[in-house]
Design a protein that fits this description.
Two copies of one chain form a homodimer. By secondary structure, chain A is α/β, with parallel strands linked by helices. Chain A is built from ten helices and 15 strands.
Chain lengths: 325, 325
């Protein structure tokens, strides 16, 4: 008698944005376990099933219940909103399973079913803010010491990531968003575009555009995700867009032709190899490591390592491709 | 005669992990535009449609074609793998639309359909690595200068994010992953867990676990995503898991009871307010700003701002909740 646990991400909330696999796994389950709000989002799939509704802070409990039922031979679907792996139930569940002596060879099989995370859903609603490097930070200090969170905010503000803030504020936690704003304003322009997205693809969906200078004045709650643009992000016609960097290489006004000195499908002249060559040339002309480090905003020992590395780099003829999303 | 453009993320590749909306939009389209590899992934949905297959570097071209057809009144689906917003076609398309004078009030309506991104798919396959703050960095220097990429790698390595590297390597770009490894090793332990995931949920799917010290020796190509754990990430029974932080507050061996001095649903004693109180106490006892800044790994002017801020913080009785995924 072998049971199973499926850790299912149901997407932002509307059935339209749930994957086929997520829906199938819930439909086939004997038992569905989840936070009461998420259970409501899949209410129409639950007929004839045992449903275990849990409160927000009872996450370990949800995992314990899931394991209990799976050990009885039941098919259990443990649901998270968004993606089950992103601040979701996948992590805590594996921790509980390991503690209980579970292994992948045991009677209970485990599957994580990926879904569109809140960051994907919110981004789709506001335009295309995630076209360049981004990160996701939870402002909840219920399980993470504040200095860890603050160091992360400081680091990504300085290095120009697009940033999604999860759990930005709650009834008790009101100052974290103010602190995040202060840390960002040390590095970013006050007019950096910010989107405040509430309940993406659910009933009370609301999108508000603001700026870094004003973001803490917005209505922000437990169901809100805050998206902060990078230094190139702009808002036009009510859409927040981060350019991918084409402006460095292609001339959009000229119908997308390649800029002088750059080749389609090749690294930028300021790409790794071009940059290394320039660095060596500058150093050979007498510019010191400390100055180069400061110029490029990189640690001196990294600059030194680059300068002392062997030079020859093979150029193969394999066509260069990029993966997406 | 009004046409439409849907920017569709088809998920990792298998139909199982496509959303209902993504499938519906492709099914209803008159014209489907995309990179030839992604077109193949949805081949069974294309009967009777005009299909425009494009090469990898012809992204602006794809957007231009989509707009052209939409202006003729056609329903166009422009497909990306993963999520259309994450290094996908949503950004370049909006840029092309704006250049062409398009506005949301014009004849052509535009929708972004979110999907499970490569980071979500890869994470689901390897276990639960994204339970804590993470970021996504593309190592492609085709459109981004290397120093920008290097600064980001350095920043997130230092501040202990889980990191997904997109476009880690191609035929021509072989040294970027070596440089990324070097930058990470300045901050992270050599035995930091790394998962190298190729073609998640597609035919040639392959998962390899390694460590930061060895990651550049792995087989890495254009269809690979590299996941680097944070300082708490571990691999057990072939599963890569990042704890959410429960160990700080809950005692898993004791059935999940709360640790001494901590309360369920409340900030950690080292959370923002507790940390601020401690900082003030330490400062009152004579510990200087510079020392405190160093102790906590935060900028001195931020420490100063915290110390000089007004103290009273309301404790409301609203129950604290966390959002997921």
């Amino acid at each position: 008698m072998s049971g199973s646990i499926a850790l299912v991400g149901i997407g932002p909330g509307s059935h339209d944005h749930m994957t086929h696999r997520a829906r199938a796994v819930i439909a086939e389950a004997d038992v569905v376990v989840g936070y009461v709000t998420y259970i409501k989002l899949v209410a129409d799939l639950l007929e004839g099933k045992e449903v275990i509704r849990k409160g927000m802070t009872e996450e370990l409990d949800r995992a314990v219940h899931a394991l209990e039922r799976a050990r009885e031979g039941k098919k259990v679907a443990l649901i998270s909103s968004g993606d089950a792996g992103v601040y979701g139930m996948a992590g805590p569940t594996y921790e509980v399973l390991f503690q209980a002596g579970w292994t992948p060879e045991s009677d209970v099989s485990v599957e994580v079913v990926p879904g569109a995370s809140a960051i994907n859903a919110c981004a789709a609603l506001v335009g295309a803010p995630l076209t360049h490097d981004f990160c996701s930070i939870s402002l909840s200090d219920l399980l993470t010491p504040w200095p860890v969170i603050a160091r992360r905010l400081d680091a990504v503000a300085a290095s120009d990531f697009v940033v999604a803030l999860y759990n930005p504020k709650s009834g008790r936690r009101t100052q974290q968003i103010v602190q995040a704003q202060a840390l960002f304003l040390r590095h970013r322009r006050p007019d950096t575009p910010v989107a405040v997205v509430k309940s993406a693809y659910r009933k009370r969906e609301r999108v508000e555009f603001t700026t870094l200078a004003h973001m803490s004045e917005c209505e922000i709650g437990m169901l809100t995700t805050v998206l902060i643009g990078n230094s190139h992000t702009f808002v036009r016609h009510g859409l927040m867009v981060t350019p991918r960097g084409y402006a460095n290489k292609y001339d959009l006004d000229e119908g997308g032709s390649t800029r002088e000195g750059e080749k389609a499908g090749r690294s930028l002249s300021s790409g790794l190899l071009g940059w290394m060559a320039q660095l060596r040339a500058d150093h050979a002309e007498g510019i010191g490591v400390a100055t180069l480090a400061q110029q490029h905003g990189l640690p001196p020992d990294y600059i030194e390592a680059v300068l002392s590395a062997a030079v020859d780099e093979p150029e193969t003829t394999t066509p260069t491709e990029e993966t997406e999303g």
